[in-house]
Amino acid sequence: MSPPHAGVVADLLGRVQRAALRRLATVGRRRPASRSAAPAPPDLSCAVRRVLVTGAGGRVATLVLPWLRRDGLELACVDRRGVGGVPATGAVQRADLRSAAAADRLVRGHDAIVHLAAVATEACVEDLLPDNVLALSHLLEAAARHGAGRFVFASSMHVVGMYDRDQPVDESSPPRPDSHYAASKVHGEALCRLYAERHAMAVTCLRLGSVTATLEEAEPANWIGPQDVAQMVEIALRRERPGLEIFHAVADYEGSPLPASRAAAFGYRCRQPAEPWAVALARVARTWRDDPVARRKRGATFASGRTGG
What is the pLDDT of residues 49-82, one digit of tens each? Predict the structure, then answer.
C-alpha cells in the first residue's frame, strides 16, 4: 500500500514538470535581451584639459596636486571623507566611489582620471575589496563609457615586494606581491590592462614607492619625491597611443640594482634623486635591525608580515 502522502508528492512533481516544460517551450520564442552598443574608442589626439583626481584628501594627493596645478590642468578633486580642501589644491568634493552611480556621475565630462584613492595599508581582503577593486572597476567602466581615454592608476612597488633588494626588477618582471594590499594592486593592474586593450584607452599604472616631501621621511631605499610623481602623471596624461604602461616610481639611487623606470622611454628624468644605494642599505639595516626579512625584501615589513592591518 502506498503511504498516505504519496499522491500529494506525485501531484507536486507533476506540476513542477509541467511548469518546466512550459518554460522550455517559450525559450526559443523569446527575443534576445537588448545590449547597449559598445562605447566608441576615445580620441587620444586631443589634449587633456579636465582631470578628475580621486583620493584628493590623502597623503599622496596632498603632496602631488600642487605640482599638477602648475601645469594649467583643470582639476576636479574628490575624496570620500569630503575634506574642505588641502593646501594649494582647492576645494575637495565628497564622493563614495564604491558606488557605480557616483563614479559614473563624477567621470562624465572629464578627459582623464587620476585615481589615487585606496586603502594603502595591509588589511583583510574584505576591507580591501570595496576601495581597491570595486571603486577602480567602477571608474574604469565609467571612463570607457564617457570617452575619458587617459587613466592613471596609483599602484605600488609592493607589487614586487617579495623580490630581494639586490635583484634587478623592472616592469616586465612577474609580480611578487608582499601582502593582501599588494595583491589588490596586482588585481587593479589586471583590470587596467583589460580596459586599455578592450576599449583602446591609454592607461598608466604608477607603482609608487614611499611618497614623502623629503628623503628623510620616507621608508628607506624606496623614496620618490612628489615632483617626480607629478612628472610621471603628466607624461601619462600626454600619451597618445592606447594600451597599458607600467612605470616604477622610485627615485634614482646611485648604484641601485633597480633598472631605470619605463617612464624614461617617455622623457622622464628624475628631478629629486635619492642617496647612494649603499647609504640607503645602511639605513635599511638600522631601521629593521630585528627583522631579517624586512632587511632583505623590497617590501620590508609588508614582506615580513609585521605591518599591521
Answer: 999 999 999 999 999 999 998 767 899 999 988 6
Question: What residues does each domain of the chain span?
Answer: 50-304
With 0-12 CB in 10 A as exposed, 13-18 as middle and 19+ as buried, what is 308? exposed
- 53, 67 Cβ separation under 8 angstroms: no
Which of the listed CATH numbers 3.40.50.2020, 3.40.50.11290, 3.40.50.720, 3.40.1190.20 matches domain 50-304?
3.40.50.720
Of 257, 269, 197, the residue nearest 232 (C-alpha):
269
pTM of the model: 0.86
Which cell numbers hold the place of 21?
516544460
C-alpha–C-alpha distance, residues 151 and 139, integer Å: 9
User: CA 200, CA 102: separation in Å to the nearest integer?
Assistant: 24
Nearest C-alpha neighbor of 211 from the set 56, 60, 69, 57:
60
Query: Would you call 112 helix, strand, or coil by DSSP?
Result: strand
